[in-house]
Amino acid sequence: MNGLASAFLAILRRDLMLAFRHRGELANPLLFFLIVVTLYPLGVSPEPELLRKIAPGVIWIAALLAALFSLENLFRSDFDDGSLEQMLLSPRPLSVLVIAKVLAHWLVSGLPMLLLAPLLALLLDMPSKAAWALEATLAIGTPLLSLIGAIGVALTVGLKRGGILLTLLILPLYIPVLIFATNAVAAAGAGMPIEGQLYFLAALLVLALTLAPVAIAAALRISMS
Amino acid sequence: MWTFFHKLASPKYFYRISGKLIPWLGTITAVLFVSGLYFGLFKAPPDYQQGESYRIMFVHVPAAWMSLFIYTFMAVLYAIHLIWNIKLADVMASSSAAMGASFTFLALATGSLWGKPMWGTWWVWDARLTSELILLFLYLGYIALVSAIEDKRTAARAGGLLILVGVVNIPIIHYSVEWWNTLHQGPTVTKLDKPSIHPSMLLPLLLMALAFQCYYFTLVLVRARTELLERERRSAWIKELFG
């Protein structure tokens, strides 16, 4: 057990360190998130009334795309330099090792989005209740995006041009998260309770936490065979 | 009984048995289609509300049922493939995907043709329609993934995993969009109470549903045979068969 925990921590530490050595790349998904949201007032309408109405969807869709964008490299460099193969050969269960990688990914991509979201809420003129709901849904939702997305990434890591394919595989699976999250934010903006939607997102997160690691591990074994 | 299934799982026996089955299934399909269309288009009375145009239901509803059936069937086949490592299951499943996608598309297209005169719009973002559209995306994602991987065996296993992940998601998608927004009429056939559809309309609907089902099985067997020949082209039984 101790060995398992230390393997988990070693991978987590390694991935975080790698991320911080490439600080420029770290900022890219975040900038992408910000820019996509900025496009809406320019492209649709700068009218505050309308912006307030579409804000939950806009921010959440931008979050989905940013997650997708940042996920692409989750296993890529490990695949290229062979360390993924070592992980597969390791005596520790692969599903635990990939959880460490997904956690590291969430810490460097999901968590910053959470920190950036209040600023976006402000830019789109969201009422404070809705902004809180947005934070809550992002807090539960972004780990879900990382977990579900990692399955798709693991399936496409062996392919040369997996990028577009990844979009096709992952976005349909993201739809329930999008629906419950935006529904909660919109409801909060209208002054209605949002516990139901949050519980649902939490239930999805539990489901993904239990099943996704197994699926990710299986997908990696398939891709590497 | 079990030995029959074990034999069926071997490509050689499957090839032989399916070869005998296909003409029968094809004939049954044709009979069912003709009788279903006859009862549906000529015998069934016009609807008291929707007039004649409700008859598109006889294509629309079976297509929608098939789209769900094939996805579930593929998931079952892949589960079988995963557990017992029967390669025939994977051949059948990968032969089904394109048909599943076609039925889904057919359900969406006939639905929008039906929606225009009934609801006054080609498309609404209602629960059933949206989840059916997402189902189409899931099929297309599977097809794209399988065709992107060159090695057939890897492709099948990767696709199988995607289907199994998707099948977890299908009820979630179904209910999430149901709670989100809805306009589509409620179920009329598959409720525990007596069906609220008149027998004269139910009969052709069930005939057409059976026809679609038989049509699918006929074609999937043909496709699976072709797929099998391609994959096993170096094996002994094929050399024996074709000299």
TrEMBL record, chain A:
<protein>
    <recommendedName>
        <fullName>Heme exporter protein B</fullName>
    </recommendedName>
</protein>
<feature type="transmembrane region" description="Helical">
    <location>
        <begin position="198"/>
        <end position="220"/>
    </location>
</feature>
<dbReference type="Pfam" id="PF03379">
    <property type="entry name" value="CcmB"/>
</dbReference>
<keyword id="KW-1133">Transmembrane helix</keyword>
<feature type="transmembrane region" description="Helical">
    <location>
        <begin position="26"/>
        <end position="42"/>
    </location>
</feature>
<dbReference type="InterPro" id="IPR026031">
    <property type="entry name" value="Cyt_c_CcmB_bac"/>
</dbReference>
<feature type="transmembrane region" description="Helical">
    <location>
        <begin position="136"/>
        <end position="157"/>
    </location>
</feature>
<keyword id="KW-0472">Membrane</keyword>
<dbReference type="InterPro" id="IPR003544">
    <property type="entry name" value="Cyt_c_biogenesis_CcmB"/>
</dbReference>
<feature type="transmembrane region" description="Helical">
    <location>
        <begin position="164"/>
        <end position="186"/>
    </location>
</feature>
<feature type="transmembrane region" description="Helical">
    <location>
        <begin position="96"/>
        <end position="124"/>
    </location>
</feature>
<comment type="function">
    <text>Required for the export of heme to the periplasm for the biogenesis of c-type cytochromes.</text>
</comment>
<keyword id="KW-0201">Cytochrome c-type biogenesis</keyword>
<feature type="transmembrane region" description="Helical">
    <location>
        <begin position="54"/>
        <end position="75"/>
    </location>
</feature>
<keyword id="KW-0997">Cell inner membrane</keyword>
<keyword id="KW-0812">Transmembrane</keyword>
<keyword id="KW-0813">Transport</keyword>
<comment type="similarity">
    <text>Belongs to the CcmB/CycW/HelB family.</text>
</comment>
<keyword id="KW-1003">Cell membrane</keyword>
Automatic annotation (TrEMBL), chain B:
<dbReference type="InterPro" id="IPR003557">
    <property type="entry name" value="Cyt_c_biogenesis_CcmC"/>
</dbReference>
<comment type="function">
    <text>Required for the export of heme to the periplasm for the biogenesis of c-type cytochromes.</text>
</comment>
<feature type="transmembrane region" description="Helical">
    <location>
        <begin position="161"/>
        <end position="181"/>
    </location>
</feature>
<feature type="domain" description="Cytochrome c assembly protein">
    <location>
        <begin position="25"/>
        <end position="184"/>
    </location>
</feature>
<feature type="transmembrane region" description="Helical">
    <location>
        <begin position="21"/>
        <end position="42"/>
    </location>
</feature>
<dbReference type="InterPro" id="IPR045062">
    <property type="entry name" value="Cyt_c_biogenesis_CcsA/CcmC"/>
</dbReference>
<dbReference type="Pfam" id="PF01578">
    <property type="entry name" value="Cytochrom_C_asm"/>
</dbReference>
<keyword id="KW-1003">Cell membrane</keyword>
<keyword id="KW-0472">Membrane</keyword>
<feature type="transmembrane region" description="Helical">
    <location>
        <begin position="201"/>
        <end position="224"/>
    </location>
</feature>
<keyword id="KW-1133">Transmembrane helix</keyword>
<keyword id="KW-0997">Cell inner membrane</keyword>
<keyword id="KW-0201">Cytochrome c-type biogenesis</keyword>
<comment type="similarity">
    <text>Belongs to the CcmC/CycZ/HelC family.</text>
</comment>
<feature type="transmembrane region" description="Helical">
    <location>
        <begin position="127"/>
        <end position="149"/>
    </location>
</feature>
<keyword id="KW-0812">Transmembrane</keyword>
<keyword id="KW-0813">Transport</keyword>
<feature type="transmembrane region" description="Helical">
    <location>
        <begin position="62"/>
        <end position="84"/>
    </location>
</feature>
<dbReference type="InterPro" id="IPR002541">
    <property type="entry name" value="Cyt_c_assembly"/>
</dbReference>
<feature type="transmembrane region" description="Helical">
    <location>
        <begin position="96"/>
        <end position="115"/>
    </location>
</feature>
<protein>
    <recommendedName>
        <fullName>Heme exporter protein C</fullName>
    </recommendedName>
</protein>
